[in-house]
């Protein structure tokens, strides 16, 4: 629980800071009408910290359809046309998809959060379900797909996750129709959501969709709302920790690092088993006497400080920092807390 709470706090800190960054937007999508002609901005960013624009609903044009489950689904009209083409192209390869969810109003989102809390609990909802007003589904541009396999509809998240090859086939086709995969695996610290193979987003430009998909970046990264660089992770050898232990620690550090405004993380390296001493464990427990930490771990990082001085940061400007330490401690439930960082 603590880990989840930390991750959420870190994410919010990161996105809070990121929200202040300038957002790059191409003037006109190269292969579609301009946003002005269409009314809505097809590159709109709606996430846990960016709410749906106030005038969105009045500009939005939607189409309603009924899916194979008999549910009515409402989609932004251009996104729906593109979806139909995608669906047809997939069907020609023997992959059958349908639309589970697309546009949800704020009231519907409130209702969904309530139902999912009852079914899956609060921790699940915090991870997968957006706060009303902050769901990309309000835009009408986010589509949740479900599968039809051997004539059977497969629509529960836990069932759909069993078909990674089918999702890979679907994802390979998205950009050709102006869609991107929105919640990438391993990018939870940026998007705020765990991997969702079914949640696709219409951006109304094949070129932009191809750029995003081929680089494997998030919409946040494409729009410049966050720095999304490739980080070299060196886990080395450990007789104490499994690869999973180390990877969990890395993801906690990335979450924390996301709040270092304007900084670019380059390398994260496990400091080695020598850091796991009783003395260090005592030290982290002194930092938080109620935490009851059971293990300690150290990583070393290399990163670049902000290139421009905005007068608000404590870094030496435009400098590569090396040997910067990260200390994490393991909680009783097995998660990692970032407890200290610096030289
Ligand atoms: Zn979705």
Describe this structure in words.
The chain has 343 residues and is an alpha+beta fold. It has two domains: 193 residues, Muramoyl-pentapeptide Carboxypeptidase, domain 2; 111 residues. It is built from 13 helices and twelve strands. The strands form three sheets. Strands 3, 4, 5, 6 and 7 form a five-stranded antiparallel β-sheet that branches. It binds zinc ion. Zinc ion binds next to strand 4.
Order of helices and strands: HHHEEHEHHEEHHEHEHHEHEHEEE
Portion in strands: 15-25%
Characterize the main sheet. 5 strands, antiparallel
- Indicate the mean pLDDT: 86
CATH architecture of the largest domain: 2-Layer Sandwich
**Model regions low in confidence, pLDDT < 50 over at least 5 residues:** 1-29
Radius of gyration: 22 Å
Shape: globular
CATH topology of the largest domain: Muramoyl-pentapeptide Carboxypeptidase, domain 2
Number of strand segments: 12
Residues in helix, %: 25-40%
Number of helices: 13
Q: What number of structural domains do the residues give?
A: 2
CATH class of the largest domain: Alpha Beta
> How far is the first residue's CA from the last residue's CA?
29 Å
Q: How does the helix and strand content classify structurally?
A: alpha+beta
What small-molecule ligands were found? Answer: zinc ion
Helix and strand arrangement:
Blueprint: H1 2-19, H2 35-38, H3 56-59, E1 62-66, E2 72-76, H4 77-91, E3 96-101, H5 106-120, H6 122-128, E4 142-149, E5 152-154, H7 157-160, H8 164-174, E6 179-181, H9 188-191, E7 199-202, H10 206-215, H11 219-222, E8 232-234, H12 243-257, E9 264-270, H13 278-287, E10 295-304, E11 320-330, E12 336-342
Zinc ion binds at residues 101, 137, 142, 144, 199.
